[in-house]
Amino acid sequence: MNSRLLTFFLVVIDWLSSFLAWGTFYYFRKTIIEHVEFSVDDSFYLGLLAIPLVWLFIYLLQGTYQDVRHLFRTKIITISFVASVMGTICIFFLFLLDDKINDYQQYYYSLMLLFVIHFFTTLIPRFVFVSIIVKRIHTRKTGFKTLIIGGSEKAVDIYKEIIDLPKGTGNLFEGFVNINGIDKLLEKDLPYLGHIDNIEAILRQQEIEEVIIAVESTEHDRIKKIVSRLEGSGVKVRILPDMYDILAGSVDMTNIFGALLMTVNSDRMSIWQKTVKRVIDVLISIISLLFLLPVFFVLAIMVKTSSPGSIFFLQNRIGKNGRVFKIIKFRTMYMNSEKEGPQLSSSSDSRITKIGKIMRKTRLDEFPQFLNVLIGDMSLVGPRPERQFYIDQIAAIEPQFLELTKVRPGITSWGQVKYGYAENVEQMLDRMKFDLLYLKNRSLSIDFKIMLFTILIVFKGAGK
User: Fold this and answer.
1) 3 state DSSP class of 411
2) Mind giving me the DSSP string for 404-424?
3) Under-50 pLDDT residues of the chain
4) CA 186, CA 67: separation in Å to the nearest integer?
5) How far apart are CA 193 and CA 179, in angstroms?
């Protein structure tokens, strides 16, 4: 069944469940806790309209609707319980705390009653819904279009192991591609779709949803290059772990009957954190643009009087998923400083104006980028956006760099804080290590630390 249709059904189920749960809670609260005759008022109808929306928003923050087909029963129980606890507390403070009561025990009873009714009213239809999906996957009636990368004996072994499992894992194999152009042992079982060089076109043509890299996990360089090419394609990537991965706890097993495969996940930030991150981006950008207007005015005068030319500097940069956007900065160089093509600057660069040197050290030249953040081109914290000219050079040496283009770039970054501006491609590669480390571990807490250190750099004028 179509993923969007399943998501729609789950949203409808959740809305109806929360609607029913609120009505049931309201009835029992009146008759059992308050010991009054059941009657409806404006708060009842307001609840019927608003309460389901509160629950759906909480489920959305949890990421419940991100990939419905990959939900399983233990997960739906867990997220339903957590959401019920969070939602009950939110609704209590938003809708119930100011109600007139006879004694405070009624608050506690109401809180517990709302939790119990909502949890079970929501969980039961959810559990049935997910069980139907799981059953269809286990019986191989539905699943995810899967491609195997590799055609050697290892690929054959992984394919047979998955096919011979008593229960389906959801992998509906469309075919395989090989790496060296020679190994095609899997051709007896699956269609040969081409070489790894054409992987992007094959993924689009076959509408692939999952990829299994059937290469020895000890071949780190080869796997790294393949994964880098698959980043941003929207497919789920799985590889065979080695003993180090198992001992390090990198293998996340959710199906005890499944094959021993590890899901490659370059982004550890949860859905709710991404949502909160974007809200923080917008709020801080609006506040900064309003309160820094006097500073902008002074800086604009200083830039204009420092040398002939425009106040702002606009340049094409590569944003999320390779989208080109115009980055906005205060001009820190003399006009026409790149007549001979793209050039990176250095601390002793003669093209930088006197005021430009001060602005670079204090990061004041970056302040107009709050506008880039507000319109969605950038985030407050994220890998620094680069020009395509330099991305091509870096990616030729280190393909992992392309992973940094799968998230919104930032005004500041871990690499920017730790390393500063890069003066050549080698320094860009050194800075990239910090940004990749951020990408693999990003969270709101790390974002706050990076912003704090950036503020300290601004006040100390310690920027490189």
Assistant:
1) strand
2) GGGS--EEE-HHHHHT-S-SS
3) 243-244, 246-251, 254-257
4) 30
5) 12
pTM: 0.68
The residue among 61, 139, 44 whose CA lies nearest residue 96 is: 44
240 CB burial (10 A radius; 0-12, 13-18, 19+): buried
| Neighbour tally for 161: CB within 10 Å | 14
> Taking a C-beta distance cutoff of 8 angstroms, is the pair 415, 429 a contact?
no
Q: Which residue has the tokens 């992992």?
A: 400
Under a CB-based contact definition with an 8 Å cutoff, are residues 370 and 400 in contact?
Answer: no
pLDDT of residue 79: 92
Q: DSSP of 328-370, one letter per residue?
A: EEE--B-TTTTTTS-----TT-TTB-HHHHHHHHHTGGGTTHH
Per-residue DSSP letters for 56-120? HHHHHHHTTTT-GGG--HHHHHHHHHHHHHHHHHHHIIIIITTS--SSTHHHHHHHHHHHHHHHH
Say how far apart CA 346 and CA 167 lie, in whole Å.
Answer: 60
Closest C-alpha among 117, 121, 174 to residue 144? 174
Q: How far apart are CA 190 and CA 75, in angstroms?
A: 33
CA-angle at 33, arms to 28 and 35, nearest 5°: 90
Give residues with Cβ within 8 angstroms of 375, minimum separation 6: none
CA distance 385 to 327: 9
Our CA angle for 34, 36, 39, nearest 5°, is: 115
Please enumerate in sequence order all residues whose Cβ is within 8 A of that of 389, keeping only pairs 6 or more positions apart, or say none.
Answer: 341, 342
List the structure tokens of 236.
């789920």
Give dist(CA 281, CA 23) in Å, integer.
37
| CA dist., res. 359 & res. 303, Å (int) | 10
Cα separation, 288 vs 277, whole angstroms: 16
Taken in order of first residue, the domains within the chain and their CATH numbers are 3-138 (no CATH), 144-264 (3.40.50.720), 271-334+345-460 (no CATH)
- Amino acid symbol at 282: V
pLDDT at position 372, please?
A: 95
What distance in Å separates the CA atoms of residue 208 and residue 203, rounded to the nearest whole number? Answer: 5
Q: How many Å from the N-terminal Cα to the C-terminal Cα in the chain?
A: 54
pLDDT value for 133: 93
Q: Which H/E stretch holds residue 22?
A: helix 3-28
Strands 192-195 and 324-330: unpaired
- Asked if 155 and 173 touch (Cβ cutoff 8 Å), the reply is no
Looking only at Cα atoms, what is the longest distance across the chain?
A: 84
Distance CA 362, CA 175 (A): 55
Side-chain half-sphere exposure of 226, counting CA atoms within 13 A: 28
pLDDT on residue 10: 95
